[in-house]
Amino acid sequence: MRLKFIFIMLFLCSPSLIAQSVEQKLKIMQKLELMQGQWAGPAWSQRGASERINIHQAENVYTKLGGQLLVIDGKGTDPVSGEAIFEAFGVISARDGLDEYQFSAYTMEGNHALAQARFEDDKLVWWFETPNGATIRYEILIVQDTWTENGYYLPNDSTGYHIFHMELQRQ
Predict the structure, then answer these.
(1) Separation of CA 121 from chain center
(2) Closest to 90 (Cα-Cα) out of 149, 135, 143
(3) CB–CB of 38/60 below 8 Å?
(4) Which domains does the chain have, with CATH numbers?
(5) The whole model's pTM is what?
(6) Could you give the percent of the chain with pLDDT greater than 70?
(7) How many C-beta atoms surround the C-beta of residue 134 within 10 A?
(8) What are the distances in angstroms from CA 51 to CA 48, 62, 157, 167?
(9) H helix or E strand, kind and range, residue 28
């Protein structure tokens, strides 16, 4: 009888706990609202020590599931030919019980990164570890209608270096 009472109480209390969790997540996700919209502009990516690739980057950022997810759909093209150079799809969600985010990012080459993200001052910082123990770190700063993002490769045993930069305008 006691076990039955516990199950009934859990069932009755669960919707309020879920609603509270969703409400907390939505509050955390609201901090990302300024990212929503269509963005485009110049970017570059560093591949190896000497190869820098110029890109025209476009980002389409929108929410799903009533604001619980932020979707970032990005495409980088050659500024001259218009050929696709880079394509990525990312989903950001609030982490349970934390003022932080989980960021799943996928690329057209078949790569996937499960990254962590949080605000540091006015920047959204997201990062992930590579199989060789290094960290890839990106810093996003949005001021009015300009999205600036820089990426860094940070080996665990030496000073890192700049691998990515983009400066997009809201369209």
Answers:
(1) 17
(2) 149
(3) yes
(4) 2-170 (2.40.128.20)
(5) 0.85
(6) 87
(7) 16
(8) 6, 32, 23, 20
(9) helix 2-29
